[in-house]
Design brief:
The complex is a heterodimer of chains A (about 260) and B (about 290). Chain A folds into two domains: about 1-80 and about 170-265, Rossmann fold, CATH 3.40.50; about 90-170, no CATH class. Helices cover about 40% and strands about 20% of the residues of chain A. Chain A has eleven helices and ten strands. In chain A, strands 6-7-8-3-9-10 form a six-stranded mixed β-sheet, sandwiched between helices. In chain A, strands 2-1-4-5 form a four-stranded antiparallel β-sheet, covered by helices on one side. In chain A, about 45% of the residues are buried. Chain B is about 70% helix and about 0% strand. Chain B has helices at about 5-35, 40-60, 65-85, 95-110, 130-150, 150-160, 165-170, 175-200, 210-220, 230-245, 250-265; strands at about 120, 200. Chain B has a two-stranded antiparallel sheet. Chain B is globular. Chain B starts with a helix and ends in a 21-residue tail after the last helix. The chains are: A alpha/beta (about 260), B mainly alpha (about 290). The interface between A and B is large, with 47 and 35 residues.
């Protein structure tokens, strides 16, 4: 088995007396889609915030390709090519979709203040290249026709896909998706699933939190289940689905039966 | 120069200088507002530049270009000292710290023998003038436009819109905030020095809280979608008292009412046009 892309080791964070994430360990293999599920308040988003550097851990370690990243600020982790999207979309409202995607290339483009002021050949070449790449990414997520529109004016589902394109612009080694299908209608969810399948086929490593169980079960190679901040189960979708602790803590007997029924 | 321009400049010389200097001050606060920070220290940085430049010219007879350089470097140093500890925090801390800086400096100017106390410094020789003022304004405006249309400009707008998301995309938030404050302090210091050398007299009260609010109002009136907005705001607010001169005692009331109406009905300022943030053609590749 290859070395893990992401390794979470005994990660803990306490808010006052409450351990929101309590001694959680798991790892994500390169090129896989790993799901993180659990009831509301299980600590999934907190875990995401720990991994992306928005919340400081009380203990434990986070490694990206073997390197400790838990002492880096969020922008340092982005520089290590860890990208994320947010549960509540965080858009740069006034930017065009194209500019939004280009903002995701911040660390890939190295131009400093002097280069921006002098506008020599290298600067122009880098910007032209970034524009071309942004068009590619927009086409990839199906938003090429919206490239010049104001990001804040795009429909909800398009904003979610734009956020993914912005994250992809980092050329991430690991992409964290926080409830990518939340608030989407069924056809938008299907389009999203197609998009994520394409990314998976390209070999991108994805860790995702999602409440839509059918979506998670179809897409993920492995699943980690959290409840009250603790890891209660882990395995392939069919193993997690059959795990009595998961059924009890989270799915409920009725949903578990519906998942087992042929579709 | 044609005679009528000569006449015009002679009559409105002070006003023409003020327009350029206030334009420069407007750009200085724009640099900070553009990434979502609020500095109330622009008047203090301006005062620092004014006093340093005046003292260097009057007491030591230093060459004018070097005076201008010093008037930019000292406020930059002050910005580093005030900014480094406060910019790691978020929200209003920078605004509070810079108000404090302004007050400390005002009281120092009032009480120090070196700075002439409440009487200020007078007899500052005339230096610079139209070319240096409008040359500086033009260069600063051009620099703001170039920087805005680059990855730095995109990062700054991203920070203003959503700091958390900008950080998650790799924007080094404290470094950007500190750099913006330092650049803004340099611009304000330059404006202060240029102003001191065309007015011949400076006093502590010119650089207090009132002046800080005026500078902020330039940007609020003009809008911060592009660097042109704050400069436009500065021009309007500098011209308004002159245009309304016929209203005599009521002109303060009218110009105040105009600002209030703009803020209520045009919260994004007069110039809502937003400049693009890409430093190359954005055509769709075929």
């Amino acid at each position: 088995m290859s070395a893990p892309r992401l390794e979470i080791e005994a990660l803990t964070v306490r808010f006052g007396g409450l351990a929101a994430v309590d001694d959680v360990s798991f790892s994500v293999a390169p090129g896989t889609v790993h799901g993180l599920i659990g009831p509301n308040g299980a600590g999934k988003t907190t875990l995401f915030n720990l991994i992306s550097g928005l919340v400081a851990p009380s203990g434990g370690a986070i490694r990206l390709d073997g390197q400790r990243i838990d002492d880096l600020p969020s922008w340092g982790r982005a520089r290590s090519r860890l990208a994320r999207t947010f549960q509540n979309i965080r858009m740069f409202q006034d930017m065009s979709a194209l500019e939004t995607v280009m903002t995701g290339m911040h660390t890939r483009l190295g131009e400093g203040l002097a280069a921006s002021l002098l506008r020599m050949g290298g600067f122009r070449k880098a910007e032209t290249g970034a524009v071309a790449r942004a068009w590619e990414l927009l086409a990839f997520v199906g938003l090429a026709d919206a490239a010049r529109r104001r990001s804040g004016d795009l429909p909800y589902g398009d904003q979610r896909r734009l956020e993914i394109a912005r994250a992809l612009a980092l050329e991430p080694r690991l992409l964290l998706l926080d409830e990518p299908a939340a608030g989407m209608n069924p056809s938008e969810t299907l389009a999203l699933e197609d998009l994520l399948e394409k990314l998976k086929a390209q070999g991108l490593t994805i860790l995702l939190v999602e409440h839509d169980m059918h979506f998670v079960m179809r897409l993920c190679d492995r699943i980690t289940v959290l409840n009250f901040g603790r890891r209660i189960a882990q395995g392939a979708p069919h193993e997690v689905r059959a795990d009595p602790r998961v059924v009890e803590a989270y799915l409920g007997a009725r949903v578990a039966r519906s998942l087992e029924a042929p579709q | 120069m044609p005679e009528f321009i000569d006449d015009f400049l002679f009559t409105y010389q002070t006003l023409v200088y003020s327009l350029g200097i206030n334009g420069l001050l407007a750009l200085s606060i724009y640099v900070v507002l553009a990434l979502g920070q609020l500095s109330m220290g622009q008047a203090a940085f301006m005062g620092m530049g004014a006093y340093v430049s005046a003292l260097l010219t009057v007491k030591l007879g230093v060459a004018f270009p070097l005076v201008l350089l010093a008037a930019m470097l000292l406020p930059a140093l002050a910005a580093l000292i005030v900014g480094a500890p406060t910019l790691r925090l978020s929200g209003v801390y920078l605004a509070l710290a810079t108000i404090g800086l302004g007050e400390v400096q005002r009281i120092f100017f009032l009480n120090s023998e070196l700075t002439g106390g409440a009487l200020g410094l007078s007899g500052i020789p005339m230096k610079g003038g139209l070319v240096s003022i409008y040359g500086s304004l033009g260069l600063a405006l051009l620099a703001c436009i170039f920087v805005a249309r680059s990855r730095i400009g995109r990062a700054m707008e991203a920070m203003r819109e959503d700091e958390l998301a900008a950080g998650a995309l790799g924007v080094d938030l404290p470094a950007y905030k500190l750099a913006a404050l330092v650049v803004s302090a340099m611009l304000a210091g330059l404006a202060g020095a240029l102003n001191a050398h065309v007015t011949s007299f400076i006093s502590p009260e010119d650089y207090g809280f009132h002046a800080a609010v005026s500078i902020l109002s330039y940007a609020l009136l003009g809008g911060i979608g592009s660097p042109f907005g704050p400069v436009l705001g500065a021009f309007i607010l500098t011209l308004l008292p002159e245009v309304l001169r016929s209203l005599a005692d009521y002109r303060g009331v009218v110009s105040g009412a105009i600002i209030v109406l703009v803020v209520i009905f045009m919260p994004r300022g007069l110039l809502t046009w937003r400049m693009g943030r890409v430093g190359a053609a954005t055509r769709r590749p075929s």
